[in-house]
Amino acid sequence: MKSVLVLLGVLLPLISSGQSGLTDKGLFFPKPSDNSYIKLIPQKPLNLEAFTLCMRLSVDPTVVNQDNRETILLAYRTQDYDELNVWQEKGKISLYLRSSSEGVFYAIPLLSIFRTNLCVTWESSTGLTAFWVDGRRSTLQVYRKNHKVQSGGAVILGQDPDSFLGSFDINQSFVGEISDVNMWDSVLTGDQIRHFNEKVWVGPEPNVLNWNIMQYEVNGNVLVVPEKYK
Ligand SMILES: *[C@@H]1O[C@H](CO)[C@@H](O)[C@H](O)[C@H]1NC(C)=O
Ligand SMILES: [Ca+2]
What we know:
Blueprint (H helix, E strand, L loop, with lengths): L1 H16 L1 E2 L5 E4 L7 E5 L8 E10 L1 H4 L5 E8 L4 E8 L2 E6 L6 E3 L9 E8 L4 E6 L2 E2 L3 E2 L11 E4 L18 E9 L5 H9 L16 E5 L3 E3 L5
Antiparallel strand pairs: 1-15, 2-14, 2-16, 3-13, 3-15, 4-9, 4-14, 5-6, 5-13, 6-7, 7-8, 9-10, 10-11, 10-12
Bound molecules: 2-acetamido-2-deoxy-beta-D-glucopyranose (NAG) and calcium ion.
């Protein structure tokens, strides 16, 4: 009993410093910074041979859509690698798996001041990769066939870490609003991805990142957008 109480004494402060559940809420990054970010706690380790990653995004285009700016949309960083990064950069949207130099680029419409439903799918067995913008699929590309995404990292919104949870660059920070970040360990069907836009989810429960029950940690100047703005 005593050891249980001691354990609770250690765990409770940790649990209460984080928060959970973001149903109908968004996260707003009001201005460029090199210290504001959100750490998302996944439902399970990111050992992935396939994934679907979806999110809703709106940006401050006067910052994010500057010609030479790189803006991080989601970063999953392990101790040694940029294991899975999604960017908007140089007029394109890009995905990088275990690399910060060899990505796959898509000339899809850029993010705007209004919300965009953005999904990306990838599977190891074929390497087939696609972006989905408001339910419309891009052309396919083949990227990182037979690769596996490794566990042991941290999922970050708002900043690109060049070391494990540090070395942020203000000129790569996200400026705008992100919500409904969901991730599955499989490639969903086109119909399922189109349902994501309508917010009436009928597909499988997101089993890697699940916005509705997400545990997360806020660092710096990030506002949780109340439900009435959904
Ligand atoms: C960010 O970009 C601005 C404008 O290009 C530049 O003046 C500044 O030095 C950059 N800051 C960093 C930390 O790279
Ligand atoms: Ca960087």
